[in-house]
Design a protein that fits this description.
By secondary structure, the chain is α+β, with helices and mostly antiparallel strands. The protein has six helices and seven strands. Strands 1-7-6-5-4-3-2 form a seven-stranded antiparallel beta sheet.
Length: 190
């Protein structure tokens, strides 16, 4: 499934681009992500834990990260497996960082593939809701790191884990709201 997200960070483009070049710091701002090893040449090993409805998956995997300095864009190609539940996942992410006034616009285009039990619970609506929450939390963490007064203060900032129950209810609310929007949208056309 394809997921596109855009967000604006209230910081200059050079600061945001520099942040995206520091893969360990980026990983610390992703809820549920843990970088376990830098393998060299843009290759990393890590873990990603996520709650998909009633199940929790914990992917162990690897990612390749490359950047184009001139275009201020990057590409991430990652894959992993949940050894406990038998799920597998793959993600290809392209991102760009561009000035927007005094702020910075970030555009992320991801292609996510899930297999196994995670695919059954990872409905498109739930995955999109989770990605929206991830972006909000990631942006808050990024801005906090970039506005920290000291390097020590910035290093102590990291994303909090997404609560599976709150994500479930948030997704459920979005589906209920969408149902009523479609229902009342149709009734006004009659």
């Amino acid at each position: 499934m394809n997921i596109t997200q855009e967000f604006v960070v209230d910081r200059p483009v050079d600061a945001v681009w520099s942040f995206f070049g520091d893969v360990p710091e980026v990983a610390r701002c992703l809820p549920g992500a843990e970088l376990t090893e830098e393998l060299g040449d843009g290759q990393y090993a890590g873990k990603l834990e996520a709650k998909l409805g009633p199940m929790t998956v914990s992917f162990d995997g690897k990612a390749s990260v490359s950047q184009d300095e001139g275009a201020r864009s990057g590409h991430i190609d990652g894959s992993g497996a949940d050894r406990r539940g038998g799920s597998r996942g793959r993600v290809k992410v392209d991102y760009t960082v561009a000035p927007e006034g005094d702020a910075t616009k970030v555009v992320i285009d991801a292609d996510v593939t899930l297999q196994g039990p995670a695919a059954q619970f990872g409905r498109v609506g739930l995955i999109k809701e989770m990605s929206s929450r991830l972006i909000v939390d990631f942006t808050s963490c990024l801005e906090a790191k970039l506005t920290a007064e000291t390097a020590e203060e910035a290093a102590a900032i990291e994303a909090e884990d997404l609560g599976g129950l709150s994500l479930f209810f948030s997704s459920l609310w979005s589906q209920v709201a969408g149902f009523f929007k479609r229902l009342f949208g149709r009734s006004s056309e009659l």
